[in-house]
Design goal:
Blueprint: H1 2-13, E1 21-24, H2 32-48, E2 53-58, H3 76-87, E3 98-104, E4 107-115, E5 124-125, E6 128-133, E7 136-139, H4 142-153, H5 171-184, H6 189-192, H7 197-204, E8 207-208, E9 211-212, H8 214-220, E10 236-241, E11 247-253, H9 257-266, E12 272-275, E13 284-287, H10 291-304, E14 313-317, E15 321-327, H11 335-340, H12 351-359, H13 369-379, E16 386-390, E17 395-401, H14 407-415, H15 421-431, H16 438-446, E18 450-453, E19 456-459, H17 462-465, H18 470-480, H19 484-498, E20 501-502, H20 503-511, H21 520-536, E21 540-542, E22 547-550
Parallel strand pairs: 1-2, 10-14
Antiparallel strand pairs: 2-4, 3-4, 5-6, 6-7, 8-9, 10-11, 12-13, 14-15, 15-17, 16-17, 18-19, 20-22, 21-22
Helix pairs in contact: 8-12, 10-13, 20-21
Length: about 550
Amino acid sequence: MEQTIQSIFDDLRYHCENEVVEFKKAENGFDFDDLGMYFSALSNEANLRGMDFAWLVFGVHDKSREVVGTSYKNGAKSLQRLKHDLAQHTTGGNTFREIYDLMVEDMRVLMFQIPAAPRGIPVAWQGHFYGRRGESLVALDMNKYDEIRRQTVCEDWSRQVVEATIDDLEPKALKKAREEFKSVHPRLANEVDDWDDMEFLGRAGVAINGRLTKSAILLLGKPTSVHFISPAIASITWVLVDEHGEKQDYEHFSIPFLLTVDEVLAKIRNLNQRIMPGGTLFPDVVKQYDEYSIREILHNCIAHQDYTMHERITMVETPDSVTFSNGGSFLPGTVQNAIDQVGPQKFYRNYALCQGMVSFNMIDTIGRGIRKVFTEQRKRFFPMPDFHIDAGKRDVTVKIYGRIIDERYYRLLKANPDLSLGDCIALDAVQKREVIDKETVLRLRKMHLIEGRYPNLFLSEYAAKTSENNELKMEYIKNKSFNDRHFKEMIVSYLRSFGGATRAELNTLLQSKLSDVLTDEQKIRKIGNLLSSLKKDGVIRLLEKKRWVLVDI
């Protein structure tokens, strides 16, 4: 085996570096995050070139191919641990097939054997996909991403035929399907009634050559027909949870999905919300949820569920939100890709199922669904949806908010109707204490929409200054805090009054006065910086007993 690996090394060493081979000196170490990015890139490129493996080699100069040796992860236990650690951050827990530790010219060389990405599943590192452009490490471009994803689209689970007949379909669902088909295709409305059921289903895309597909069972099948698609699970579970996280009620819904989606959505308690921004006596009255949005998300769960994973679709309702979950990787890759998409989606996991859902007026084909959900939330001045995309577990979770989080967000959106959708999403991230990019921060600052020191931002005082809501004004003051000079004067005054103080005493003095935007850890660090600055300026000194005193005492 050693000779075989040695031969592979020689072939790689004297062959030009390309998208599936990378040499690094790594003489004393190598950044773990960089290692993960190279793993993702080389794995994806190997897939695209039809190769079983890619190689990353440490201890060799990338240009001259001179062997320089490496001390990286010296020892079998360290290398095995590395394989485990890498798997925690990659799609599907992928990691090195083998790590070969060999001596070349009396120097240590490491050869990392990287398996090609699985068919249809690009490999991500910490949620981001990487590729190669020549010898450069870059983000995986969408063409390559699409090429990998399309590898399984041709194996459309939803298009597979089953040994079922028209008698296995629900008559009420068939009737509704015809009605919806007419509304989608008004030019064919006069012809539809002349078609028999099988011709109709064929034209709708859920039957092939007079045989029903799994899509027909999902959308139109009787509950007793679910065995035709076994072991797939055709079930939507609704769960009601109270404000304490305790489960209060639940119900399972089976096929036909064309009918049962209405029963599922009817379970949501879409109550009126009376919002009184600024303490006005004339509240805004809105429903908790936009009906289009919750219906669109549920239909997307049905259309894009990976039924080969044998999972159910779930819908968890709390007093403040509804969260939808389905199995399967997120086809657009990122939420931003889905929002930016113009025109129809390029490919589908369940093409036949999606074709049937379009025919029955459940979804459309122009790729507007996710963007429209964000747009509807903006129109209502409500928080934006939260998407959690787990590439490792291959599932997608979407949370739709039914109440405002921060009144300032509501007021800012209402007062600035011309804000772009991107800026509304960024303001939503700020109210949720999420980090946004610095370029967006600069733009929002110029519009006086946010304040605070990056990355600890908060929504602007303009939402609070004009408010009659005292709680909102107090929250702004707590977030605004004071400048460093004010806190230094507090420290000096305290030391002068009491002759000195320990660090714990000064922490107690200042922590409650610092901005609530800061975490406890950040507050402690800021107090340390204030003390260091005063010491450097010759104002205070630290005694042996760890007690701070003024220099002039």
